[in-house]
Amino acid sequence: MKVKLADQSVIIQAPRPLVFQMFTSFDREIPSEGTDRQSERSRPSETGEGAKVVEREGNRLLVEFTSRYGRKLYRTLEKVRLYPDDRITFQHLKGPLHHATEEFRLEVVPKGTRITYQGRIECRMPFLPGIGWLVALLYVRPKYGSLVQRHMGLLKKAAESLAP
After folding, report:
1. What does pTM read for this prediction?
2. Which backbone phi and psi does 114 adopt, to 5 degrees?
């Protein structure tokens, strides 16, 4: 059973094209909390997080992501679809979850750009069939939500530092 993740939203005081461009710069490392903008590709990431485009065909990408939660690194392979400058969708192909779909919508607002997030996840527990939804709801959902919130906060900080 799929579990809906908490909807999230952030307003970034930067133009939508800049926010979209920074959001979709997947061959860069995700900045750590103490940096003002995204790290250059050749610099090692302090957090170990990052993204690498494996394949690109127009606005369809295959991307390997590495994300950190606490001391643990999670690696995923995801199909990413770009809809410039309106939205970005992600479909989980490989990694710790059985299923994950996510969508980020970018909307022009008086103070800049609003990013709205929605997602769904599904866990499967081979040793306890039928319990995956409970694990997704009680364990994975809060962690996933805080990870998304942190990444949106880092994007906000980086985009606002480059905004005119």
Report:
1. 0.86
2. -100, 130
